[in-house]
Amino acid sequence: MINIWKRDGRNSIKGKIGILFLIGIFTTFSSIDLSEFFNVRIPFPKNMNADEFISYVYVILAIFVIVLAISLVSMLIAAPFNLSKHYVYLKVSRGEKVRFVDAFYGFKDYGSAVKLYFMTNLYIFLWSCLFIVPGVIAGYKYSFAFYHLADNKGASTRDCINRSEEITYGFKKELFALDLSFIGWNLLTILTLGILSIWVSPYYQASHASAYIDLSNDDCIEAIAS
């Protein structure tokens, strides 16, 4: 199954690396969490008097508000581009023509993209608070939510999440194994100073899109359910 997803992924990106590279650069840099640039640590001074302590608290609160605001802005930018990325690779996997304008598709369903982005990340964060493993499992559980939204414009956040849970049920190990199979490619990407990512990144994304298309088949879901 994994080999089939990867084979389909490789075949689907042939002749499309150039446009996928351009779209990838645009959507990736547009989705960077800007709050990471403000990840500063303020040492706790010793022997503070009351006034100094109050000033210290105000500084901490101000930094917290700034980082929170920047994270919110980052989310508002990242969400539609994340939807665009999933939309693009669904088109690629289905043999459809991809255009650079597809990088902006997410803005056509902006509200749905932002709500889904927020809720999936919130759920993953909450599961991660329990332990690392539940967080990883949650990541795979909700990994197809954006594909469903890209496939069904205007779908509700609950529908996308439920559909992703339904599709990935019984296949989380396979999806994890799919990710593990790219470790060698990721190491080669590091050795080539990122140059190989021009091909590896589309290959990876297309393989996952292929997995979604395969597993979202109703016959496949019914077979697992039975």
Mean pLDDT: 85
Oligomer: single chain
Total of helices: 11
Q: Which stretches are low in confidence, meaning pLDDT under 50 for 5 or more residues running?
A: 34-38
Helix proportion: over 70%
Largest sheet: none
Kindly report how far apart the N and C termini lie: 19 Å
Strand and helix order: HHHHHHHHHHH
Shape: globular
How would the blueprint of this fold be written?
Elements (H helix, E strand, L loop, with lengths): L1 H11 L4 H14 L19 H44 L16 H21 L1 H10 L3 H7 L5 H12 L3 H9 L2 H9 L5 H19 L2 H8 L1
Helix pairs in contact: 1-10, 2-3, 2-10, 3-4, 3-6, 3-10, 4-5, 4-7, 6-7
Task: Please characterize this protein's 3D structure.
- The protein is mostly helical.
- It is built from 11 helices and no strands.
- The protein has helices spanning 2-12, 17-30, 50-93, 110-130, 132-141, 145-151, 157-168, 172-180, 183-191, 197-215, 218-225.
- Helix 3 (50-93) packs across helix 10 and helix 4 runs antiparallel to helix 5 (132-141).
- It starts with a helix and ends with a helix.
- Residues 34-38 have low confidence and may be disordered.
In short:
By secondary structure, this protein is mostly helical.
